[in-house]
Amino acid sequence: MPPRTIQLLVYNSRLFNAHWSIFVPRANDPNIGSVVGGFALEFVRNYDITTDSRPIQRIDLATVPEEHVKDTDGDEEVIDGNANPIDRLEEVIVTVPVPGPSLRPNTAAPDKRIEMRGCQWWTKQAIAALIAAGLFNEEAQTVADNAPVQ
């Protein structure tokens, strides 16, 4: 079985930091696959990247043995809000706590600086976990460190 390429999706924005997601393309169609990322952990299965109108950059993160990645059946997009892992890659990803909403009321702690923990922060944490689990090589962290943030 050939290795599978896992990608970083970067959705650029002129107003905000870029949104990052991890994309696992299907073996038989590189434009359809599973995507994970956001402020709440959810898997979007059968995501067709060609139907998204936002500007997207696709950056190769790592290659993993195919036995660690499972394609989903069907063509209809399915959102798994419970984030039930279906393969080894997802089993590692669900261990990384999501940041939650990044905007806080200014009355929460006015004298303390808050650490911004958005999708870019979470994606880097997920990549680090995948490296620690032996699924990604160290180069994946360098790729993320050099990815566009705007």
Give short descriptive properties of this protein.
150 residues, DUF6540, 3 helices, six-stranded antiparallel sheet
* Estimated structural class: alpha+beta
Which term fits the overall shape? globular
The number of strands is 6
Rg estimate, integer Å: 16 Å
SSE arrangement, N to C:
EEEEEEHHH
Percent of residues in beta strands: 25-35%
Instruction: Give the N-to-C terminal Cα separation.
Output: 36 Å
- Main sheet strand line-up: 5-1-2-3-4-6
Mean pLDDT: 89
Q: Supply the number of helical segments.
A: 3
Uncertain spans: none
What is the count of distinct domains? 1
Largest sheet: 6 strands, antiparallel
Note down, in words, how this protein is organized.
With 150 residues, the chain is α+β, with helices and mostly antiparallel strands. The chain has three helices and six strands; from the N terminus they run E-E-E-E-E-E-H-H-H. It has one domain (4-101, 115-145). Helix content is 18%, strand content 25%. The chain has helices spanning 88-93, 119-132, 139-145; strands at 4-11, 19-25, 32-36, 43-48, 56-64, 78-80.
